[in-house]
UniProtKB/TrEMBL annotation:
Record's catalysed reaction(s): (sulfur carrier)-H + L-cysteine = (sulfur carrier)-SH + L-alanine
Source species of the chain: Thiohalorhabdus denitrificans
SUPFAM superfamilies in the cross-refs: PLP-dependent transferases (SSF53383)
Reported cofactor(s): pyridoxal 5'-phosphate
Protein name as it appears in the record: Cysteine desulfurase
InterPro entries, per database record: Aminotrans_V_dom, Cysteine_dSase, PyrdxlP-dep_Trfase, PyrdxlP-dep_Trfase_major, PyrdxlP-dep_Trfase_small
Record domain Aminotransferase class V: where: 3-366
Family: Belongs to the class-V pyridoxal-phosphate-dependent aminotransferase family. NifS/IscS subfamily.
Length: 385
């Protein structure tokens, strides 16, 4: 078997496990304390901040640690709405993660004007589509478009989208959770005003993330009120062990950017070529778009994704039907529906996402199990017994 679901979560790197364990052993302390224990904790906290900033391409003071990317996404959208009070439109991409889409839906119920920027058939949010949405929904107060999609891997042209926003003086927030460690990130050069990150997608622990933000371009009230932690941006004694683990993971992810894209692309291309050569019916979603190198979203006509997942699980393989959050329900993926893929085809989607630890041998073994299974399931639908 093999774990091929790295977009859902990644195995904690051994070096990260060591740093987290040490954070709960010798490294404990309250970073706000003035004594030696506190000073040690503070210096670990700031070291982690520097490592995350280096991966994100931002200044360390722009990093606020959060309890994951869901919190960072909620904080940006709700923080914007709390100050805007329904005056201007919140624009979100049509294929965003539920932590953006559901937050936007909630804010709309609360009276904030909200609109979606449509995606094309390959999941792209084009600068033209964004410009049209900016024109049609004036005045716009905030735009949120993800850097890379978790289900399809589609990369959005963030610098171009930020430029379109700048024409209207509107800040852009980008959920860069899936891009981190898989594609170069450059917050400063991207033109974005805010960016969300998550530790557990890059070999770090779950429940830790960051909101990167240029406070001048996107002013927000504190995420949590209380003590003055995180430069008065998010109160609460810091999750130092988790944050230190995030820092280590960010450092490793940055180092591995030299080799990871090529490694992952080799595996992905082999998977897609292997399926095509096998003769089963298969379509690669977002193939015409720029994609993350590690992500393959496949449509296997005639196959019920849930059946396939259960069979692959029995054989020891972890894959997903598009979104970990949506698995367990038979609803087709809203991301694929937003791209104009009909529900029937969307129900046949399989997401394979490789990681740093995935080997060529694992991928070959995966193909050996997958191909006959898909063939059998497709024969059953074309020639029902
Ligand atoms: N955004 C994207 C694109 C994601 O893939 C995820 C994780 N599924 C999140 C946000 C949420 O991150 P977290 O699990 O840290 O809350």
């Amino acid at each position: 078997g093999a774990y091929l679901d790295h977009n859902a979560t990644t195995p904690p790197d051994p070096a990260v496990r060591e740093v987290v364990a040490d954070g709960l052993a010798a490294g404990w302390g309250n970073p706000s304390s003035v004594h030696a224990w506190g000073r040690r904790a503070r210096s670990r906290l700031e070291e982690a901040r520097e490592r995350v900033a280096a991966l994100a391409g931002c200044a360390p003071r722009e990093v606020t640690f959060t309890g994951g990317a869901t919190e960072a996404n909620n904080a940006v959208l709700k923080g914007f709405a709390a100050r805007d009070r329904g005056a201007r439109t919140l624009l979100v991409g049509a294929t965003e993660h539920p932590s953006v889409l559901e937050t936007a839906r909630y804010l709309r119920e609360q009276g904030q004007p909200v609109a979606e920027v449509p995606a094309d058939g390959d999941g792209r949010i084009t600068p033209e589509a964004l410009r049209d949405s900016l024109e049609a929904n004036q005045p716009v107060g905030l735009v949120s478009v993800m850097w890379a999609n978790n289900e399809t891997g589609t990369l959005q042209p963030i610098p171009e989208l930020a430029a379109a926003c700048a024409e209207h003086g509107v800040p852009l927030h980008t959920d860069a959770v899936q891009a981190a460690g898989k594609a170069p990130l450059d917050f400063a050069g991207s033109g974005a005003a805010a960016m969300s990150l998550s530790a557990h997608k890059i070999g770090g622990p779950p429940g830790v993330g960051a909101l990167v933000r240029d406070a001048r371009r996107l002013p927000l009230d504190p995420l949590l009120h209380g003590g003055g932690h995180e430069r008065e941006r998010r109160a609460g004694t810091e999750n130092l062990a988790g944050i230190a683990g995030f820092g280590k993971a960010a450092e490793l992810a940055r180092e591995r950017l030299a080799g990871f894209p090529e490694h992952a692309r080799g595996l992905r291309d082999r998977l897609e070529a292997g399926l095509r050569e096998s003769g089963v019916a298969v379509e690669v979603v977002s193939e015409a778009a720029e994609r993350l190198p590690n992500t393959s979203c496949l449509l296997l006509p005639g196959v019920e994704a849930e059946t396939l997942l259960m069979n692959m699980d029995l054989a020891g393989f972890a894959v997903s039907s598009g979104s970990a959050c949506a698995s367990g329900s038979l609803k087709p993926s809203p991301v694929l529906l937003a791209m104009g893929i009909p529900p029937e085809r969307a129900r046949s989607s399989l997401r394979v996402s490789c990681g740093w630890t995935t080997s060529q041998a694992e991928l070959e073994e995966f193909l050996e199990v997958l191909v006959p299974l898909v063939r059998r399931l497709q024969e059953r639908t074309t020639h029902p017994a």
